Amino acid sequence: MIDITHKEIWFVTGSQHLYGEETLNQVAKNSQEISKGLDASTHIPVNVVFKPTVKTPSEITAICEAANASKECIGIITWMHTFSPAKMWIAGLSILNKPLCHLHTQFNAEIPWKDIDMDFMNLNQSAHGDREFGYIMSRMRIKRKVVVGHWQEERVHKKIGIWSRVALGWDEMRHLKVARIGDNMREVAVTEGDKVEAQIRFGLSVNGYDSSDVTSKIEKVSEQQISDLIKIYEADYNLSDNLKADGSMRASLVEAAKIEIGLRAFLEDGGFKAFTDTFENLGDLKQLPGLAVQRLMADGYGFGGEGDWKTAAMVRVMKVMAHGLEGGTSFMEDYTYHFTPKKSYVLGSHMLEICPTIADAKPSCEVHPLGIGGKEDPVRLVFNSPEGSAINASLVDMGNRFRLIVNEVEAVKPMGDLPKLPVARVLWDAKPSLDIAATTWILAGGAHHTVYSQALTTEYMEDFADITGIELLVIDQDTKIRNFKDTMNANEAYYNMFQHRL
């Protein structure tokens, strides 16, 4: 359900008529070769499309208007092969509403020491042409990605690839519909927020639905649909004995299948790519959706528990960013701690809904009492998560702005088996330590729900914050509490001062 095959990044080169037709022809030829090289890169997941050199204010404005209008274009890469007077760019940049990556490169990698002359110098002016272009974007307070290096370097391709994946996420967010099934868990603060401001800022729409909107779909599920889906369960997971064909809880698996089919139909019919539910408003649902939610997330849907629409949206957006990369992305919650004198860890989990894309092996499909919600025992997938680097990201509403908080973590192997814990889980070491990470997270107002991703890094989140114009706070190996407080205080002044521009 994530299709990026038709998405494009436009490669736009700036110059001017000052240098004559011969130079401009060479500019176009070189630009086309760079565009083809980037398009062929395995690190850039979308099509890179060459566009004719822009040389006048009207040409620049026209290409920006065309980018805005194109459903396929998710952003533009700009490069100044020669000097391109930046006042020419003001009108176009003023209206551009697609992400921009400024590639600071040059066609040749090395200086041709024996042959270099003034013709060569007139053609290859990006060293100062890009500085002129950079000034006008800074003067206009335009957030953008700057990538420096030769266009054939893998490092450059990787950085452009990260930005292009974030542009994909932004494109998705601009059109995202989130279904809030059953509203919010009562009296909870952080899962609430200004949905109108979110739609203004991000483009996503969040609307409420009753559980009956889902159960009406469940009532139409056929026996054949159930049978076909259970065959998939039997093939993809290790079913506990009581869920097998002759098991005592087989009916629970049948009900889980009905819920998945009905919930999937509701989402597809409404064009929703993200959703929430809450155990306080299940209506006629016989069990809290567990297996259904896990499988929908694995297919690319966003999810947030207890009405958490911001996290649901971020799960979807980050799954789009990570499409095709190694490592999974999941809804997550900091659940409990492992304190020891030497090292402390976080056990991340949730009641049911952890995405199996972060499983370290074939998940076990089990049914157990939930002890909350007052419904039948729900079916869920149980698994551990592999070791390795990951991030936890939380989007919160601070009243006058949205804040994105990111903590870099290292997943580790649990110190023992967890035979009585019937949920999916991951144990991680929060950088720089649990003490500092938890202190700064709490000071920042970070939510208890996060998006946990093994596929994405902090750089993706930094680009996302720049593109969306929101605040970013990073907790990593270098974080110190005093400096973190100073950063938050400075940000408070900055966002109050420039709120009308962001």
Can you tell me about this structure?
The strands form 4 sheets. A 6-stranded antiparallel barrel has the order 11-12-17-16-15-18. A 5-stranded parallel sheet has the order 2-1-3-4-5, sandwiched between helices. It has helices spanning 21-39, 57-69, 90-95, 118-123, 126-139, 154-174, 195-202, 211-218, 223-236, 250-270, 291-298, 309-321, 434-444, 458-468, 481-497, and strands at 8-14, 47-50, 73-80, 100-104, 145-148, 177-181, 205-209, 238-239, 274-277, 302-305, 329-338, 345-349, 364-367, 379-382, 388-397, 402-412, 425-430, 449-453, 471-475. By secondary structure, it is of the alpha/beta class. It contains 15 helices and 19 strands. Helix 7 links the parallel strand 6 (177-181) and strand 7. Helix 8 (211-218) packs across helix 10. It starts with 7 loop residues before the first strand and ends in a 5-residue tail after the last helix. The mean pLDDT is 96.
